[in-house]
Design a protein that fits this description.
The chain is built from 7 helices and no strands. By secondary structure, the protein is mostly helical. It has 2 domains: 88 residues, Orthogonal Bundle (434 Repressor (Amino-terminal Domain)); 57 residues, no CATH class. Keywords: DNA-binding. InterPro entries: Cro/C1-type_HTH, Lambda_DNA-bd_dom_sf, TransReg_Diox_bact_type.
């Protein structure tokens, strides 16, 4: 049910995300020419559960998405973005380097990216406060001169 102003209630948003990720997985599976049963075995996920994910009945966890990504031989990050777990990559040399590092697991890459982005957000939030403090100090210095 859509709320006044065209906004969706939270339950509808979850249902849309589950449907979107399920459709995306189905498309990836079809383009890889893998049957549902084959992907189920490759990913270590039960056939009925995988079917429910594809139909949008279930919203898989990040761990299940990672298993499905391995089965499809695609980036777990791509599934995380589709599922709304991750925002679209912002790019930049640090993020690109982390994503490209073959020595790290998908989980390790995600943790590093999360920490890096949290530092960037924290610094961006602190920047206006520091600029305001600096401006106020400069104004006070000018007034006393």
């Amino acid at each position: 049910m859509t709320e006044p102003g065209g906004a969706q209630n939270p339950m509808e948003k979850v249902a849309d995300i589950a449907s979107d990720i399920g459709e995306y997985i189905r498309q990836q599976r079809s383009s890889a020419k893998i049957s549902l049963r084959q992907l189920s075995k490759l990913a270590g996920v039960s056939n009925p559960y995988l079917s429910q994910i594809e139909r949008g009945v279930r919203k898989p966890s990040a761990e299940i998405l990672q298993q499905i990504a391995k089965g499809l031989r695609i980036s777990a990050e791509a599934l995380y973005v589709q599922a709304g777990i991750l925002d679209l990559p912002t790019g930049g040399p640090v993020g690109d380097s982390i994503r490209a590092d073959a020595e790290l697991t998908e989980r390790q890459k995600q943790v590093l990216l999360d920490v890096y982005e949290s530092f960037r957000r924290e610094n961006a939030a602190a920047r206006p406060a520091a600029e305001t403090t600096q401006t106020t100090t400069e104004d006070t210095t000018e007034e006393s001169a």
